[in-house]
TrEMBL record:
Superkingdom per UniProt: Bacteria
Protein's UniProt keywords contain Cell inner membrane: no
Family note: Belongs to the short-chain dehydrogenases/reductases (SDR) family.
Gene Ontology MF: a single term: enoyl-[acyl-carrier-protein] reductase (NADPH) activity
InterPro entries to which the protein is assigned, alphabetical: NAD(P)-bd_dom_sf, Sc_DH/Rdtase_CS, SDR_fam
EC category name: oxidoreductase
Protein name: Enoyl-[acyl-carrier-protein] reductase [NADPH] FabL
Keywords from the named record: Oxidoreductase
Highest classification ranks of the organism: Bacteria, Bacillati, Actinomycetota, Actinomycetes, Kitasatosporales
Length: 259
């Protein structure tokens, strides 16, 4: 069975994607900072028979990242690495003139440094994956004007899915610290895609979602009009199923192209 690591999997998009992969027969290594919610999510994921290793911890901790990759190795390897765990750096969000520098450092550590560290740990397993063994299709999938893919290439490895944000590419008041951290993740993803042509590397803007992260960012907005994270999962599965070319994608565009 294919194996995935999903960080930040106790709730929101990470949990929803984990449920979708478990339903398809994937084995999972999942993490979150809070042990209780993570184990609750893991119990749900195991109901269909998937092997699920739940490891509470902080992705900013190098020892924890090593533990995650070791668990995937014990399950048989690694085919998909999902860097989903994220922090804002300031809760609620504030203008740059008020942004604590320690908060910005934390955002960069969790949103950019930790994903790179996890990629570095996981690269030998991802390179050895046989998830994809055919040439990638055209980098354009449907009508997805926010996507910039690399040229098609022959891939015999696994995939890295980095969850980004439109704040990485657009200037929104008070989103400067978080956006800068996600922009760093985007650039790391783009360079990784060039340096590792045997892998699929996707950095995806999931669009607006009703999540605890957004509620903490903007507590004055109840988020009632925002879609639930599960509505984004079909877009991510579309990338996976298509073996899409490495690149930046916007989930709404992928969903539009799928209709």
């Amino acid at each position: 069975m294919p194996v995935a690591i999903i960080t930040g999997a106790s709730k929101g998009l990470g949990r929803a994607l984990g449920a979708a992969l478990a339903a398809r027969g994937w084995d999972l290594v999942v993490d979150a900072r809070s042990a209780g919610p993570l184990e609750e999510a893991a119990r749900e994921l195991r109901r269909g028979g998937a092997r699920v290793v739940a490891l509470p911890g902080d992705v900013a901790d190098a020892a924890h990242r090593t533990e995650l990759v070791a668990a995937a190795r014990e399950l048989g390897g690694l085919d998909l690495l999902v860097n989903n765990a994220s922090v804002l750096g300031a809760e609620p969000l504030v203008r740059l003139e008020e942004h604590a520098l320690d908060g910005l450092r934390a955002a960069l550590e969790v949103n950019a440094v930790a994903p790179l560290g996890l990629v570095q740990e996981a690269l030998p397993l991802l390179r050895a994956s046989s998830l994809y063994g055919t040439p990638a299709p055209s980098p354009y999938i449907g009508d997805n004007s926010h996507q910039t893919g690399t040229e098609a290439h022959k891939s015999t490895g696994g995939a890295v899915l980095n969850i980004s944000s439109d704040a990485a590419a657009e200037a929104y008041e008070t989103w400067g610290g978080y956006g800068a951290a996600k922009a760093a993740l985007d650039q790391l993803s783009a360079v990784l895609a060039v340096e590792e042509p045997g892998l699929r590397v996707w950095w995806v803007d999931p669009g607006d979602m009703r999540t605890d992260l957004y509620a903490a960012a903007v507590p004055t907005d109840d988020g009632a009009g925002r879609p639930l994270p599960g509505t984004v999962v079909p877009a991510l599965l579309r990338l996976l199923d298509a073996g899409a070319a490495s690149g930046r994608y916007a989930a709404p565009g992928l969903l539009d192209g799928a209709r």
